Each structure stands twice: as C-alpha cells, then as structure tokens.
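User: Can you predict the 3D structure for this chain?
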Amino acid sequence: MSRALFRSSLPELGSFSAARLRPTAAVLPFSWTTTTTRSFNSTAPIVEPVSSNNAPNPTASQVRPLALKKSHPAAPPSPIADSVKNLLPFLAAQPGHYITVHIHGFPYLVQEGDQIRLPFRMPGVLPGDVLRLNRASVIGSRDYTMKGSPHIDERVFECRATVLGVESEPLRIKIKKKRRQRRKRQAKSKHRYTILRVSELNIKNLEEAAAE
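Assistant: Here is the predicted structure, written as structure tokens:
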C-alpha cells in the first residue's frame, strides 16, 4: 500500500520540481537591466565647439585655432643700439655694484669687501699682494646689469683683491686596502686654500675707458 502511494505521488513531485527550476520572467532582474540600458543609451555625445573665425592652417593673416598656443605672442625686442654708451653712466652712478669674476676658471659672485676662499693654493703670491681681477662675465647694480660674451672688456671696470693668506685643513689619513690581501697603505692629504678679499670695485665712465 505504501509503495503504491509513493509511485502515485512521483509524477506530481516531478512536475513540481520542474516548475520550481524553470526560470520565469519574475525571477530575472528585469528592472536592473532596463535601468542600465536606459542610462547607457541616454548618454549624449560630446561635441566640441568649433569657431568659424579659426583657420585650420594659421598664417600671418588668419587666426590661429584655439588648440594652438603662441610661444611668442610678440616679437622679441631688438637690442638697444649703443646700449653700453647709453646705459653705462646709469650703471656707474648707482651704488652697491656686484661682479662675477673668474679666477682660474672658477666664477665668484662678490661685492666690495667680500672674501673669496679659493679651493687651491695660488702659486707665486704672498700675503699682502694686490691682484687685479680682469676677467668678469657680469657686472650689475640694483636696476642695471651688463653681461659679457663671454667676458666684459677690462677697460670698463676695475676690480682688485688683496691676498690675506693661506689656510690649510687638518691632515687626513685614509687607509686603502684590497680584498683578499693583507697589506694596506695610507694616503695622506692636507689641502691648502688661498684667501682673498675684494678691496676695490669701480665702474669707469666712457671718458676713462676711452683714455685707456
């Protein structure tokens, strides 16, 4: 009796399980797919504005496109004719001059009264000697600057420096070794420096420069 009841209930269970496993429209995320499709299709294409005044190929008589930028909006100014003759008196009249002097290839930006510590010992000089520094690339004041190409004529300025003395650093000993070798050697070094003081810095006028 129990087997007959179980066999009679098998078709009903089979149809019920098939109905549960069969996908229906209510199970699918219909609202999610619809909203996604609408948001994707509703995006408007981006259209860049095009100006009718812009020329595709800019020339001197046409307007440049908006995407291009002028590196030089105006022509660079032409050099002033006889700039040294016209502006040198103004440079000489202003106080507080500075100069970039070159000593053995090393540039130093100094003013009158500054000290210079050379990274070497200058040969042939003694404390108290006065040296004339005749190589300069820049001379300037608060409002004016004179630049050389590469150096300024030495008749325009006069810069002198006094040798104060020679300084030396403490003796340094460095031990040098090689791998897998028991011997070693010592390298001793004691650098010396020359100290200068800029004692005079004058900018000459045109009459003084022409007299020389």
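Residues 2-21 form the longest helix (20 residues). The first strand starts at residue 98 and ends at 103.
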